[in-house]
TrEMBL record:
Residues 3-58 form the HTH deoR-type domain. Pfam families: DeoRC, HTH_DeoR. SMART domains: DeoRC (SM01134), HTH_DEOR (SM00420). This is Lactose phosphotransferase system repressor. Repressor of the lactose catabolism operon. Galactose-6-phosphate is the inducer. It comes from Actinomadura violacea. The keyword DNA-binding applies.
Amino acid sequence: MLRDRRHELILRVLRSEGPVTVETLAERLAASLATIRRDLQKLDEEGLLKRVHGGAMPVEGHDDPFTDVAEVRPAEKDAVALRCAELIQDGETVLLDIGTTAHLVARHLRGRALTVVTSSLPVVETLADDQHVQLVVLGGMLRRDYRSLVGYLTEDNLRQIHADRLVLGTSGIRPTGTVMDTTVVEVPVKRAMIAACGQVVLVADAGKFPGTGMAKVCDATDLDVVITNAPVDPDTGAVLADAGVQVLEV
């Protein structure tokens, strides 16, 4: 497993379970104790966790999980986001998902004559002062840890609109082409977004193959385009090709 991926998973374990031992992390991540100790030292130096004897604990008062995830592979995500923004045509209505890569897409859409629909507060903050973008904010219940809006109000709002494209994020893509997410509460919103758009563009950096996730969002047949920064593994590539999905590598 790549170092950045281990760091992301370590932070997720701390957020969901609190203080954790080196031994537990080594078992969860199938890594050596020495590797985990180096990871914890690095994350402690970056202020993302607090190193304690025998393990680590979350940093009190630390920023939300969205910020943590945004710090993982930022250059790779931005390259994917830029390529995605290049696909979008002026005058379109675009749905932006809540992921950190979708947020980067929003940055590349500033100054464009577009309608952007989103349930992501970071996207709203990025585009709120842009007079060229017509911004539509979906209602719903605030999910504070990821700064997103979820629930039946969000899903109902989505049933009232149609977008030209959806920029969809993911926690992982299985070799079967199944798109996964780590948070069950976000899945109904993602599915409603897919139903509300004409084209689904999945943005997924190399760490998302196979990535993580326990909840199924959709199948490969629901996708139109996949944008990634590394060659897709042969099994996944074959499934995507059979489903007629265009894969763009940056």
